[in-house]
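Tutorial, part two.
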Amino acid sequence: MSRLRLYLDMVRYGNVHNEDFAREHWAFFRELLERLRLQHVAVAGLRALDVGCGKSFWLSLLLQGRGALVTGVDTEVVLPGLGVGKYLGLARSNGLERAARTLAWELLYARPYYRALERASGAPLPSDRVDLRNASVTELPFADATFDLAVSHEVFEHLPDVPGALAELRRVLKPAATACIYVHNFASLSGGHHIAWKYPDSEPSTLVPPWDHLRENRFPEIPSWVNRLRERDYRAAFERHFEISEWLPLGREGEALLTPRLREELAEYTDDELLTKGFLVLARPRPKEGTA
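Running the prediction step on this input gives:
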């Protein structure tokens, strides 16, 4: 029953918020471009890697539309359109359930989502020019020092081996490259990835208790697995492989729900951990030993 409720909630949120997702993605992309500008990085002409590009590969499309040469990688089979081969490949590599979910997204939500994203960006989305690959970030099929830029949005919290992913990312990035990685903070109200807390301030759940994933975890059914790492764990992993330029908290949520009783129960966490939705990391690869 809980699995059925999960999918019913996903359909409901898709029906209500599909175009909101597109606008949120565009807002993040604008923030990313501004941060790159502040780092004196111009996107046009760069070889860019979109880590965990997802079935909509929206970040790849937006970067390609700004003149970058983009390769998107994902552990799922990611291709535009409704080709039979795509879904057979998805079923083989990711299972029938994942293939069915992707097909439902393509049939019900893809077209209005892309229309909304195109309207927000004010430019066509070049889906025919993006290079999409089925690959793991811990085993990237690229030579050393291939890319000028790596980007990722809400992917690293789903990786079982974050240090291994960062080591591999460091390998394929050029020495002067920039990595822009946005991580959804697990300790945040929405960080447990329960669909009921997708919009915690405007649509608070009446069923799932706030911060349930940090407490009794009575509602564990979520769309995708999360590694439960805390911000300090990510910082330690990044510092091993990258020189951090900026570590930016993005989004604040749940302040009205963090009651004194909950604050006491969650005393292991700081207020910033509990209330910050995510953080954007801008960093450059550390020089390899002997090359500094």
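The beta strands are 47-51, 69-74, 131-134, 147-153, 173-184, 242-252, 276-285. In part three we will examine how such features are distributed along the chain.
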